[in-house]
Amino acid sequence: MPEHTEEAKDFINLGIVLNEKGEVLMIKRREPEIGKDDSVLEWAFPAGKQRLNESREECVKREILTETGYDVESLRQIDLAFHPQFPIMIVYHSCRLNNPEPIAKPQEPDEVAEIRWVKPSEIRNLITTQLNPKVARELGI
After folding, report:
1. What are the structural domains, with CATH classification, of the chain?
2. What percent of the chain has pLDDT over 70?
């Protein structure tokens, strides 16, 4: 039987979280990732690998809390897609912010350099990899 923390190697859940101002929760990675076409992933939506014994909704909630300290709930799945530049399957979730302030201290300072709320219009300036078309449509960008 798998351990509680055993994770899928190539399957992540990613959260699109908006606050009351319509801003989107973003994280800046401490170590950028390089895609197969030399694209650089530095700014991203909070996300992480799914544990083998948890649901997609549990995973996105846990990962956002761990990375940012914010408590969220997955409202619905926006898309399930293979990323064109990185060898990973991503479930994109539309998430509700349960509390406007963080409820915990972020637990991954070695992975996350900065947490920022940004206007949707700023996202294309931050994300230098391909943005999922359904996510772009969801955010109106």
Report:
1. 7-135 (3.90.79.10)
2. 97
